[in-house]
Design a protein that fits this description.
240 residues; alpha/beta; Glycerol-3-phosphate (1)-acyltransferase; seven-stranded mixed sheet; 45% helix; globular; phospholipid biosynthesis; lipid metabolism; lipid biosynthesis; 1-acyl-sn-glycerol-3-phosphate acyltransferase; EC 2.3.1.51
């Protein structure tokens, strides 16, 4: 019963947050800080409705340089609410083009200045990547990417795609990994307190001076650091 009530409230919240976010986007279209404000608009009420407690240690994320590439593990659609609590200033996200057709959310995602990529069209995807590289270099804006490319449903990290690392190397900006504990399989949405979620950002990894030949090693380094961090966060979650 509690689960059903929460889902009804979440549906109502999703619509209201979408309307408010759309108004914000129309008032200041494509402002790169719209993403942070919209993320909070979705996340803060959602965490209260779901009674999920987020414990975040994201000092390196809040103190990030003006431009960087942020990479995070991607578990479920709830990531919108979970990570929404820690999206930093002037940070936009990369999403698939089909998001544009999600009522309200898709339109505000676009107006918030986020980047929509047509993954089925290699030429257009490459052009979008070049645009984000220019953004990183010249507009004091950071890019948030889920390098797995799809949800892993709380399992081990999937292989990382190259896009985020190509952008970081091309722009010469650091990479900041952000890790969240495996919460999907441990949420208890039919209880009053649904569980604890731990988030931690890792120190920035510089890319200045690297070439595309260094990319495989960079990907392996980031993925291994994130795997170790997620395992540590899972241990914290088990004892919370």
């Amino acid at each position: 019963m509690l689960f059903v009530l929460r889902m009804l409230l979440m549906g109502l919240h999703f619509v209201l947050a979408g309307v408010l976010g759309l108004i914000l986007g129309i008032c200041r279209p494509f402002n790169p800080d719209n993403s942070r404000l919209c993320a909070r608009l979705y996340a803060l009420p959602a965490m209260w409705i779901l009674r999920l407690r987020v414990r975040a240690d994201v000092t390196s994320l809040m103190d990030k340089p003006p431009s960087c590439v942020i990479i995070a593990n991607h578990q479920s659609n709830y990531d919108l609410f979970v990570f929404g609590n820690v999206v930093p200033y002037r940070t936009v996200c990369i999403g698939k083009k089909s998001l544009k057709w999600v009522p309200l959310f898709g339109q505000l995602f676009w107006l918030a200045g986020n980047v929509l990529i047509d993954r089925g069209n290699a030429i257009r995807a490459r052009r979008a990547m070049l645009t984000t590289t220019h953004t990183l270099q010249h507009e004091d804006t950071s890019i948030w990417v889920f390098p797995e490319g799809t949800r892993n449903l709380g399992a081990d990290l999937l292989p990382f795609k190259k896009g985020a690392f190509q952008m970081a190397i091309a722009a010469g900006v650091p990479i900041i990994p952000v890790c969240v504990s495996n919460y999907v399989k441990h949420m208890h949405l039919n209880r009053w307190r649904s569980g604890d979620i731990f988030i931690r950002s890792l120190p920035a990894i510089p890319t200045a001076g690297l070439s595309m030949d260094d990319m495989p090693q960079l990907i392996a380094q980031c993925r291994e650091q994130m795997r170790e961090c997620i395992a540590s966060l899972d241990r914290q979650a088990q004892t919370a």
